[in-house]
Design a protein that fits this description.
CATH architecture: Roll
Order of helices and strands: HHEEHEEEHEEE
Helix content: 10-25%
CATH superfamily: Methylpurine-DNA glycosylase (MPG)
Number of domains: 1
Radius of gyration: 15 Å
Structural class: alpha+beta
Distance between the termini: 31 Å
Oligomer: single chain
Shape: globular
Strand content: 25-35%
CATH class: Alpha Beta
CATH topology: 3-methyladenine DNA Glycosylase, Chain A
Number of helices: 4
Length: 177
DNA sequence: GCTATGATCATA
DNA sequence: ATGATCATAGCA
């Protein structure tokens, strides 16, 4: 039941991965939740992405093999979880913006900084393989159909008008309507 | 070495 | 609308 999504799932265009991640389950230890909101960050032609200026110590993992976690600290206090997409050598990652609690969740999960807190994910998990653990992403055996909404990304100043945010329409746990 | 800035959130 | 708080990046 909790078989991880294969690496081939992530080795695709970032936008496809971002959209298909909706409805998937992310788990860490006892905690788990259903992904209801994501954002795509492209490697090229995307000034908002951390990879816009190439490989650095921080962005190295995003250029690495797909299916790995990219976790970083923002505003000196919040950790954000991303999943690396695209084949190795190509930059692209998906920010997990909100999850719907499934089990073992304490606290709110309707925001990038909040869900990492609730799942117990920190920068120590940067670079870990999401097809192996300790953080795992898997598909649900049975999926209820849902509508996908698209909008501009939230909280960025560059390339702010691109429609790269995806969310489960009507879900109460998305960070915004 | 120094400084500006940021993929956020809670509070007011 | 603002403040908290610090790692990263760009530059001197």
């Amino acid at each position: 039941m909790r078989r991880p999504l294969p690496r081939s799932f992530y080795a695709r265009p970032t936008v496809e991965v971002a959209r298909d991640l909706l409805g998937k389950i992310i788990l860490h230890g006892e905690a788990s939740g259903r992904i209801v909101e994501t954002e795509a960050y492209l490697g090229i032609d995307d000034a908002a992405a951390h990879t816009a200026r190439g490989i650095t110590d921080r962005t190295r993992v995003i250029f690495g093999p797909p299916g790995h976690a990219y976790v970083y600290l923002i505003y000196g206090m919040h950790e954000c979880l991303n999943l690396v997409a695209e084949p190795e050598g190509v930059a692209g990652c998906v920010l997990i913006r909100a999850i719907e609690p499934v089990s073992g969740i304490a606290g709110a999960t309707n925001g990038p900084g909040k869900l990492t807190q609730a799942l117990g994910i920190t920068r120590r998990h940067n670079g870990c393989d999401v097809t192996r653990g300790p953080i795992v992403v898997s598909a649900l055996p049975k999926v209820e159909p849902f509508e996908i909404g698209v909008s501009k990304r939230i909280g960025i100043t560059k390339s702010a008008d691109l429609p790269l945010r995806f969310y489960v329409k009507g879900n109460p746990f998305v960070s915004r309507k």
